[in-house]
Amino acid sequence: MAASFYDSLTPIRTAAGIFDEALYAPAPDDWYICISDVRGSTAAVAAGKHSDVNFVAAAMIAALTNLCGELPYQFGGDGAVCLVPPGDMAAARRVLARVRSFAARDFGLDLRIGIAPVGALNQRGAPVRVARYEPSPGSAYAVFRGGGIARLENAVKGRADDDLAAQAIIEASEDDGEPPDLAGLSCRWTPIKASKGRMMSLVLRCADHREVHADLGRLAGLANLNALSASMMRPKWPPKGLVREAKARRGRVPLPLVMISTAIITFVAYIIVHYRIPVGKFDPNRYVKEVHEGAVDFARADESLCVVFDCPEDRIPVLKEYLEARAARGELNYGMHLSDHAVMTCLVVSPTDGQHVHFVDGGDGGYTRAATQLKAQVAGAS
Fold first, then answer.
1. What is the pTM of this model?
2. Which end of the chain has fewer beta carbons closer than 10 Å to its terminal beta carbon, N or C?
3. CATH number belonging to the domain at 4-178, selected among 3.40.630.10, 3.30.70.270, 3.60.15.10, 3.30.465.10
């Protein structure tokens, strides 16, 4: 029942399909939008905490899906968006408060969170329309249009709409002291090295996403704007995210003990995937193929479009020239960050049934650094 609205949406099998507005449907008025954002993410990334920021951003998604089952959600590097049905609203508030405390206690990060009914956004002329990107069954990822996400995000960040901000607030007292259920949240892959040139992280704000996305692919000489190549995907042990995963797993158990069990679990998983050893229903070859094909290296919400892709070195100046020209004409605003790698944060509900989604961000704070440039460009233009 919880996911009935989301289940009814037509699955989009290709990334290009997310630009088909006919596939977006209004979110029900009585559903709730949850927003999270790491305050001071730019400084945290500069201090080398990029992977922590990604992990904390994905924690809200993990906690809410473990509470409710399959939900519409989106990852944005230093924050996330999720829709929850009305029957889970009270429990979702507690879960969000727990995740905020987890971010502060285990990572020293200040996670802003908020929740508001879709109807409150509709009343403000900022609707929420949702589409379901699902490259393979079980790996659904939401994209949003309408203006509601940006409106609530600005309210939670204290930029506008004090009434909505007051409605969305979650008090510290709503945390009951229980640790959040973050089962399935991990980051076990090595950084994905660019094989064509550089990993380009772009955060764009424009009216016509389809045209700009197509132009970027044409100018880059790429059939698809993807960050991952199968040849560059390698599991590693111990994973760089071992401590992060242990913190997510520990509950009330002392961290050193959980570190030991997590090390054993991740070692066994590494052997199985690295040597492609089938175990029961788990087919490592199929799993790696699903990771490669279904990794989410984009986000679309309202007028914002974020993409991470492996860009040929000699095409970078061409893309910059194109974006600068369109920005000068007032047709878009953008931020760009270049790195030699991308990173993945993973939510694995069931590795045997295809229920796993892998969130990609550009290395060294790709989305966060690109968004900082975008804000500066908008401020300069105004």
1. 0.95
2. C
3. 3.30.70.270
